[in-house]
Design goal:
With 224 residues, the chain is mostly helical. It contains 10 helices and 3 strands.
Length: 224
C-alpha cells in the first residue's frame, strides 16, 4: 500500500471527528445536528455529512429522524446499565481468551499500556482534569491491550464500539473514582501477568459496576 492509499478519506476523517465529539460531549445528547452548521464546523460537504450521520446512526451515536434530520443520541440511566452489561459480557469473555493465548509480546503491551494509563491517573488524582481526554484514551488502550490476544477481530471491534458508548457516559459526568479505579487497574495488570482469568473477570465486573454506580450518583441522567 502506498502513502496515498494509507491516508484516511475525507469521509473517514469527519466520521472519526464527529464520533469523538459525541463521545467527549462537545456535541451534547439530543442536540440537533443541522447540516449547514456542521458543514461550516467540519469543512465538508452536505452529502458527506449525510453519509457520515447515517453511518453514526447505524452505530448508535446519532438518531435519524426521517425528514426532520439528525440529532445526537440521547442518554438515560437505563441505557447506561444496558451498555455496561454488554461491555462486561464481551470483555470478560475476551479476557479469558486473551489470557490463554497471549505471549511475551502481549504481556509487554499490557504493561506498557498500564504504565501510560497510570501516569494520567496520577495527574487526575492530583486534580489536573486538563488531561481527561488523554486519561480516557490510555484507559481505552489498557483495556484493549488486555483483550488484544483473544484471536477474534470481530469480538475486538464490537467491544470497541460498546466501550466508546460506555466512555461517553463517563465523559458526560466526568466520573473518576480516583484510587479505587487505579487499584482495580493495577489488580487487572497483576491478574493478566499471572494468567488468572477468573480473578480478572471478577475485578472487571466490579470495575464496570463501580463506574455505573459513580455515573448514576451524579444524578444528571434521566431515570437515575
Amino acid at each position: 500500500m502506498n502513502l496515498i492509499d494509507a491516508r484516511p478519506t475525507v469521509a473517514e476523517g469527519v466520521h472519526t471527528q464527529i464520533r469523538r465529539d459525541i463521545i467527549f460531549g462537545r456535541l451534547k445528547p439530543s442536540e440537533k445536528l443541522k447540516l449547514e452548521g456542521l458543514r461550516t464546523r467540519y469543512g465538508v460537504s452536505v452529502s458527506t455529512l449525510r453519509e457520515t450521520l447515517t453511518r453514526l446512526a447505524a452505530e448508535g451515536f446519532v438518531l435519524a429522524e426521517g425528514q426532520r434530520g439528525f440529532e445526537v443520541a440521547p442518554v438515560s440511566a437505563a441505557n447506561l446499565r444496558e451498555i455496561a452489561t454488554l461491555r462486561s459480557l464481551l470483555e470478560r469473555h475476551a479476557l479469558a481468551l486473551s489470557f490463554a493465548a497471549g505471549g511475551i509480546d502481549w504481556e509487554a503491551g499490557v504493561v506498557a499500556a498500564h504504565h501510560k494509563l497510570h501516569q494520567m491517573e496520577l495527574r487526575m488524582m492530583a486534580g489536573d482534569h486538563s488531561v481527561k481526554e488523554e486519561w480516557k484514551r490510555y484507559d481505552w488502550e489498557f483495556h484493549r491491550a488486555l483483550i488484544a490476544a483473544c484471536g477474534s477481530g470481530e469480538l475486538v471491534a464490537v467491544h470497541s464500539s460498546v466501550f466508546d458508548k460506555y466512555l461517553r457516559y463517563q465523559m458526560l459526568v466526568l466520573t473518576y473514582r480516583g484510587e479505587t479505579a487505579a487499584r482495580e487497574h493495577r489488580d487487572l495488570l497483576q491478574a493478566a501477568l499471572a494468567r488468572d482469568a477468573a480473578r480478572a473477570q471478577d475485578i472487571l465486573a466490579e470495575h464496570i459496576d463501580g463506574g455505573v454506580r459513580h455515573c448514576l450518583a451524579a444524578g444528571i441522567l434521566p431515570g437515575a
